[in-house]
Records
---
Amino acid sequence: MSELIEAVIGSEEKGDLREFASFLRQQEKRYLLRNDILTAFSEYATNRQKPENFYKSSNLEKLIYYTQEIIREDSNLYLIIRPKIASQEVYRLTEDLAVDRITVQELLDLRDRFVNHFHPHEGDLLELDFGPFYDYSPTIRDPKNIGNGVQLLNRYLSSKLLQEPGQWQEALFNFLRVHTYNGVQLLIDERIRSQQQLSDRVKKALTFLNDLPNHQSYEEFRFELQTMGFAPGWGNTAGRVRETLEMLDESIDSSDRQTLEAFLSRIPMVFKIVLVSPHGWFGQEGVLGRPDTGGQVVYVLDQAKGLEKQLQEDITLAGLDVLNIHPKVIILTRLIPNSDGTRCNQRLEKVYGTENAWILRVPFREFNPNMTNNWISRFEIWPYLETYAIDAEKELLAEFHGRPDLIVGNYSDGNLVAFLLARRLKVTQCNIAHALEKSKYLFSNLYWQESEEAYHFSLHFTADLLAMNAANFIMTSTYQEIVGTPDSVGQYESYKCFTMPDLYHVVNGIELFSPKFNVVAPGVNENVYFPYTRHEDRIESDRDRLEQMLFEREDPTQIFGKLEDPRKHPLFSMARLDRIKNLTGLAECFGKSQELQAHSNLILIAGKLRVEETTDREERAEIEKLYRIIDEYNLHGKIRWLGVRLPKSDSGEIYRIIADRQGIFVQPALFEAFGLTILESMISGLPTFATQFGGPLEIIQDKVNGFYINPTHLDETAERILEFISKCDRDPHYWHEISQRAIDRVYSTYTWKIHTTRLLSLARIYGFWNFTSQENREDLLRYIESLFYLLFKPRAQRLLEQHMQR
Ligand code: UDP
Ligand code: LCN
């Protein structure tokens, strides 16, 4: 990158750079983000009356493109440049165009000075650096392979087996010996006492199996295998057992990456899984649309169902039906005594449609009943988590009659609890973020002190750092969740280096090139959400009732607005009313466009209609704003706002009804980590317009099976929708084309079957990796523990004291 700067300075573009720098010095803003920089650059070009294509493909233009931030201090400009995904360089540009590269530490000091929180005379700030702890693990080289960590890990493990066969074959042998189910030995028993013996017996068993027909059932030759030292778990037929043993044989002898992966993925070692999701209202009915309860609950419930099914399938294939094994999945959440009509005050609830998946609710200890008996915002939850983990551990041990085999954390709080549990129980830990708040709230770290009272980001971000580093593996829904796009920083990437002024500096918060990251997107519940054309599966009475509710019914307690012409194409959106979801932005976009109003009605499903119904700060503000917009643009007669919380089956039918009327779905979030509503609308067959900020960018292929919008540009968004509408007017097939491609996209890429197969394969492979690398990780875990006790806990205690006074 320095060459690019040199190239600008060493050419006639130098004059332009000087001018642009001086233009920036005259701006009021001293901290420019990428959008500001691009806007400033185009303003500058217009001001100077440069011809339109003047900068195209110049070095200066490239430099501006790569610059993520510019901070001005006195007459110096600091350019934070992201030359490629997951890397960063910082340069100081002086008035006379001298350029120096500065260090991460200098950058963090600069940011502290920017917010007037730089106090060098008071001593250095605590510096957090997780980098050195990753020395033991392999590293991805090419950023495009980030998010496919398991591939690298398998390559690494198979090359170890080849290069250091003594140590690694021994490790594999020891690993195969440890698996039991309720005290019953699996895979190999005490008759096989060494790695060498294993190798010999595998060959012997293969000779024996070669004489059996493929389909012969395991039960019929179980005892012959047992005498050779092979316990159950290798397969349910002669063919399957042979295949698995051949994989082992090959993994040992030729160390092929794919074979090793396939072999490890078959190891019967996961029967009991905990999915940790403490915050919010976690239930199967009446909770969606409440604050803090949205996609995560949908995701975890569907995942639990999918996991049970997949585990059952795997158990059968492994030949373990002979042991009568019943896999168990527990969703661990909090019990909320004042449960407001939901079942969140029940200790145990079976997950519908499963044999052995449960919601286990453990209460927070009663520090102050005003707080702990009620729903607690995810931003306030921190003081309760450590004791919660201790209490939950006991309950889990009792429910499972032993330890679980895998602990999956969800969101920042769940991941912290997952870390505490995994550490105590010595179990593989997987993290799922759903959304990391740091990149959602702009400048949330730099101004953390100003917003601490409301958001407690000092605890939140510390918890994130600890949990993400402790996790054995991290699953994300998209690639960009980890490292963004060429022009935007990823959510995990934003934890790499940042300042929490007066609290600490993070110089290396997470190793983005570690193999722990894997992209495994969620699916959508195909029993509830399916194409509108599947008339045979739709219930007519439900359709009539919901049509009435959407377009006609008058019920001021739940529905706002009466449509002048209910036949217009519906423009539909459904989300919780939080600021980032930006339903108010969509209303404003609709309000500003007469043409859009002429073609469509705006139909919004958003949990509430009245400020009195919520204690959530953001929700109240959004409700008030939505009413303001409706009045300001006089949207009466053109909008229906439903303050309802729908049962799941109804929400599926709603999308289909909108599709019956050739409507569209709009997801206008300012940022969306993934966006389950997008999958739901697409599988229903609705042309979907979704925000270009975040996950939708990977779900939708623009103009192929949906459309991107930039929700901060209201006119442009309206134009994009109108363009589609007028294309549909001209060509009646167009709507159907996009609709069908949306459906195909979801079925081919976003199913729970794909997700759970992958997750279980990862659990086994990282389980092996955890087994072999435990000693190497101990120093990292000790560091994390120290930070938990010395940094996190005292702050959480202080927050608890504040809560006690409420
Ligand atoms: N949802 C719902 N009723 C509402 C709002 C949302 O049923 O009033 C459901 C919606 O169908 C989807 C989930 O909640 O399954 C929202 O997930 P998404 O990933 O879109 O957003 P999140 O709320 O998790 O940020
Ligand atoms: C949280 C979000 O914000 C959404 O973008 C996701 O779809 C949801 O969780 C499920 O992961």
---
Amino acid sequence: MGHQVKEIPTKPYDGQKPGTSGLRKRVKVFQLENYTENFIQAILDSIKAEGATLVIGGDGRYFSPETVQTILKIGSANGVKRFIVGKDSILSTPAASNVIRKYKADGGILLTASHNPGGPNNDFGIKYNVSNGGPAPENVTNKIYEATKTIQRYKVIEADPVDLSEIGETTYGPSQVQIIDSVKDYVELLQEIFDFPLIEDFLHKNAHSFRVLFDGLHGVTGPYARAILVEKLGLPEGAVQNCVPLPDFGGGHPDPNLTYAHSLVEVVDENNIQFGAASDGDGDRNMIYGKDAFVTPSDSVAIIADWAEVIPYFKKGGVKGLARSMPTSKAIDLVAKKKGLEHFEVPTGWKFFGNLMDAGRLSICGEESFGTGSDHIREKDGLWAIVAWLNILAAANKESPNKLIGIKELLNKHYSVYGRSFFSRYDYEEVSSEGANKLVTLLNEAIKTSSLNNTTHHSKSTGQDYKIGSVTSFSYKDPIDGSVSSNQGQIILFDDGSRVVFRLSGTGSAGATVRMYIERYVAPEAGEKELNRDTAEGLKGLIEVALRITKLQEFLERDEPTVIT
Ligand code: G6P
Ligand code: ZN
């Protein structure tokens, strides 16, 4: 049966270079004539499309259903044999990673701009993942970019749109399209990983003293969270909110941090809820926030690593190694050292963990940017982290049945053994590139001339003295493929082990965004009072000194950061 393939002439667009997480632009840009078509054809020109199986899904944001139909038309014309599509074009990023792996697909096209706002006047994104379920490495994204620069035509078949709301299999031109339940495979995966009976029992017995609230922020995780927390773990309907995915996320900014997830923070504070959690638009980020306790992502991954053996997946398979991105606090390193595990420090970006996982050297990892995950898939995983916390709390309470252990108690217990890495991030969003360059230049000079080494800086507000050991620029050599990534951030290291790191964001859309990461370690011997201080208080002196040394406020013309996390 011949299906006519039509070739449509087109011209290249500038700037279709995939960033850290695919191509992200305003919806209006993707709607330009042939813009989306060009990029999809460029992806297919850069992979072996003939005979391939591709997964398609995304966070359900505005412009997703149309784009799925475009991918089907172009994909089929390019010889894709089979498409596995999430119902209603929905698959969270972790669910898509799982589906690619589970069904042994050759890759996947994810329609998401993560935590960026959605809707006709906001952002859309297209991201390509490879057969291990992880984001395409740079050699693939470079190929795609090159293809966008010379594209002259794209291919389509003539076919009626596929009904994305009907689960099942249909023939589509020369291809097969399978619409799958977006949630089912993912729920099965988490059930294999965690001790659901233990969690359910704990939640049931402590229904009044340990209340749970999950906020989907109208992103993609709502249906997943409902299926897991309400249907499988027996929590009441009131334990989830904002769980209907909306194409514009209800007008919100679906990013789980204290600033943007205020719908969660307000209800947790008002109702004294013991365990609150949220995830971002596409479901790969997470925040854990309870009554009087916020868990920094750096502490979160360290605690999950410390308690790994109560999680059946790790009990069975063992923990191979631990890792964090460079700016993430060193809390997880201390766990690795105590347990005798190999640990890695990689540049910012989840893709750096994939090689280590594929080589069997990494099990649990995390980033300060609210990303936590493991080698069960090749993306970070918001709900995985949230259920990991519930599993750990259930186990901790089984060990100590007489006094309820909540988030705060677990944190304090951790600090009393390992000490505490006070950690905070200051974001200076959309500053002038000129100002940002001045800051980078000042630090590069200090690196080149060692002029700041061995200088001591006094904090007037706290009376502390901070002596600089070194100033360095971070580069990473991948231990598996030997590739080198340089200039991944500048580090001022103090001789008490404190660090201040500076990086330019790789995900911003206008101007430059400077991030300053501040970390100060306090050993367990300092005692409870020091360990339990408020973060801002614990870091006050160090921040004062770092701002003065770098002249940051002067260069960036900002007295205050835009966001503090
Ligand atoms: C995305 C990536 C993360 C990374 C973050 C960094 O979310 O998936 O792995 O940590 O971007 O963003 P930045 O704006 O700091 O470059
Ligand atoms: Zn995301």
